[in-house]
């Protein structure tokens, strides 16, 4: 995942959106040197809808350490 500043993102946001859409790239956005947002492909995202339905891949075997 490449780190970019908010200033870089604001200059050419379309460039970063295309990199995500076409090439599956991910970006960590920083402001004043601190991370504040990620721009990632949807296939790397898990969305839980209010009705309880889930979009994305919940990998329960990865041992990611969620919860503890």
Mean pLDDT: 85
Helicity range: 25-40%
Beta fraction: 25-35%
- Tell me the number of helical segments per DSSP (H or I, 4 or more residues long): 2
Measured between the Cα atoms of the first and last residue, the distance is 25 Å
What low-confidence regions span 5 or more consecutive residues with pLDDT below 50? 64-68
* Overall form: globular
The radius of gyration over CA amounts to 15 Å
What's the multimeric state? single chain
Number of strands: 5
Q: Strand order across the biggest sheet?
A: 1-2-3
Sheet with the most strands? 3 strands, mixed
> What series of H and E elements makes up the topology?
EHHEEEE
Structural class, from helix and strand content? alpha+beta
Helix/strand layout:
Blueprint: E1 2-5, H1 6-11, H2 13-23, E2 27-31, E3 34-39, E4 47-48, E5 54-55
Parallel strand pairs: 1-2
Antiparallel strand pairs: 2-3, 4-5
Describe this structure in words.
By secondary structure, the protein is an alpha+beta fold. Helix content is 25%, strand content 28%. It has a three-stranded mixed beta sheet with strand order 1-2-3. Strands 4-5 form a two-stranded antiparallel ribbon. A hairpin with a 2-residue loop joins strand 2 (27-31) and strand 3 (34-39).
